[in-house]
Each structure stands twice: as C-alpha cells, then as structure tokens.
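Q: I have 452 residues here and want to know how they pack in 3D. Can you give me a structure?
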Amino acid sequence: MNSLIDKYNIPGPRYTSYPTVPYWDDSTFSPEKWKETVIRSFHETNAEEGISIYIHLPFCEALCTFCACHKRITKQHSVEVPYLESVLKEWKLYLELFNEKPKLKELHLGGGTPTFFSPENLKTLLGGIFETVEIAEHPEFSFEGHPNNTTKEHLQTLYDLGFRRVSFGVQDYDPKVQKAINRIQPFENVKNVTEWAKEIGYRGISHDLVFGLPHQTWEAMEHTIRKTMELKPDRLAFYSYAHVPWVKGVGQRGFDENDLPSGEEKRRLYEDGKKLLQDLGYIEVGMDHFSLEHDDLYQSLIHKKLHRNFMGYTSSNTQLMVGLGMSAISDSWYAFAQNVKTVEEYQKMVEEGQIPVVKGHVLNEEDLIVRRHILNLMCQLETTFNENNSFPELENALEMLKEMENDGLVEIRGNEIKITEAGRAFTRNVAMVFDLRMMRNKPETRIFSMTI
C-alpha cells in the first residue's frame, strides 16, 4: 500500500462537482442562462423529489488557520439580522422564478459558523423560508455546529424546526495542534454538545476529524479517534487537510509549512486512522466518510442512493439545489452558479433585486455525461458505459485505467468499471481519468490539494 500511495498521491479535485470550479467556462454563463436552467430543473423535479437549499452563514468569531471556507471574522453580532434579511430577500428572488410552491426536501446550514447566530435569529430565518414552501414527507435538515458556541438552546430550537442531523468540527484534541490551527476546543465541549444532541433526539450526529495538520503525530491522532469513540457519533468525516495557501491566502499561512507532517507521516495518519476506525465498527462510505451500520449514510450506500454535491455526501438527492448567502454555490444539474464572495457586495446586489451570482458554468451534453460517470464512481464505486453515454476520449481513459487495474485499484469487465476495496483510497485518482476538461487543459501550476 505504501508504494501505491507514493505513486498516486498527486494534486487532484475532490469532485463535489464536474466540471470542477477551476474549469468552469464563464464565457457561456450569464445570470439569465442560470435562471433558465433553474426554472427548467424546478419544473422537471419539484412535484416528485422537491429541492434542496444550502444557506451559507459566513461569520466566525476567530480565524481557524486550517480553514479553506469563505468566511468573515467578527465578534460584532449586530451583523446577524441584516445578513439574514438579505438571505430571505435572495430567497424571494428565487421564489419569483417558480410558478408553484417549492417542495423542500433537504436543507443545510453551513459556514463559517452557523451557531454564531442566535437561536432566535436562526428561527426567524427558517420561519421565513418554511412559510413559503411545502416540506417533504421525510426531509433532511442538517447544520454545522461549533462545539465552543453551540448551546442546548441552538440544538433544541433547530430540532423543533425539523433538524435531525448535526456535524461538529473536532479536527484534533492535541493542544499543540489546536494552538497551531487557532482552534482551542476542549474535549469537554464536544462531549457536552454531543450528549445534548443525543438527549434531544438527533439521529445523525457527525464529527469531523482532519489528518495532516501541523504538529500532528500518530499518537495524537490515535488519542483523538479513541476519545471520539467515547462519544460514538453516528458518522465521521476523516478529511485530509487541504493545504492550499496559494488559493486561500493568509488564513492558511498561520504556521510554518515545515510543521506539517511529512508524506510518510501523513500516510501513516491516513492508513492507521482508517484501520482504527474500521476496527472500532465504522464502515467506509464513499470517500473520506465513515458511519455506523444503522446510519442513513451507510444505508444509502447499500441501496445505491448515495449522492454527492457541494455539501459533500448526502443520503438524499435532488436535482435542484439553491445556494443562498455570500459565496454559496447552487446547482440546477444543467448549470452551476456561485454568489459574490463579500458580504457587502452580496447585500448590495440583493437590495437591487439581483440574484447575486458572479460566476458559473452551463453544462453541455458531454459535461452531463462525464458528470454522471464521475458521480457514479464517487458514490457507487462503479460505472457502466454504453452507446448513449460515451465520449471521444473513452478509449484513452480506459487505457489509463489499465495501470490502475494492474495495481488492483479497479476492475474492468467489458463496459463496466468497478473500484475495488483496495482502490477506495484512490477514488479521486480514478475519477480524474474521466475529467476531460482537466485532461485537455492540464494546469501549469498547482491548483488542487493532494489526493490523499
């Protein structure tokens, strides 16, 4: 396994979309085209499956130096109400595109720090949305909670509004690592919020762990995993730290790069961490994610209903996902769109009655074919080709996969490709073989994090 990781640990996308954001073609995109695809997707799917909403709540009280999210650092909570008013105004602009009440199937609050906002203000925001929609029979409502500022009132308020899933960012319990990433977070805080969530009735509690952080050692990582097991969350995300300071700037230069684990050290963090999680009863689901057998994420994998979008892996699937808030990304299946990336510009455009998209990509027929294959590989670990879903470079792609087949990472049987158990760690590498836009225009400089 060591030699395979050395061989395949190269820069590559995480594939929360295809095409990936660096390969979006803005020349074919416009706000009007975006609206056309939203209307098309809404009419095709609202009656049956409904829609998803992602709300980006960007404020944080402190900067975590490992974070690559779009955020605004402030301790001034007076920003809450004006921002949420803008989100509701943006939502009304989308409502004007629909000629019937949307059926809301999935809702996620991300950030930033959603629990920066008071329970009362979150209730006002969600009430403003819920009064305009029909809520699906089995909705999936989730949010990201910071263990240091998530209160029992936050958890109860959101539970009463229909939320059943919450993810807590843990990262690492080692004080030295926490200091380096400016995330001082005692185990006691995580224990409190996890036990409150269980007591209230949440059924999809998740902890996020990150390997490859500065000063991180296997001893510290093992301690973090074993402490996490004391709380037994339903699912876990076990992410590789994506060190991309050339993209995110000063936030990811809060420590010396020499403090990061070496390639050999990071490989051990990944391999031994994954083995320990599995020994402790967690099953690998998709890429970077693990869950207990009872969890919806694992059940979706078994029943081939697992889906992946800009929120990561999800057990529900909608064709239309509307992203609200500064920097939020939306997906109509036929196009992607991203909102402007500053709070001020976002609020200004919404006040002027504009859906605040700044860039995007309209998918052509080839994009749609490739997107489906990459989604199949990322979610089901397999895909099948036929005369209706082929593309010009298919033979080249299959030729490139032969080496992976020789290494035991994939199986190729006729027109079917399957990622093996040994190949799960290299799912991103397999998907890259089908990334036509990247293959045709290989980056001259590094734009992605390492695949492992």
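Q: Anything worth noting?
A: The radius of gyration is 21 Å. The longest helix spans residues 263-279.
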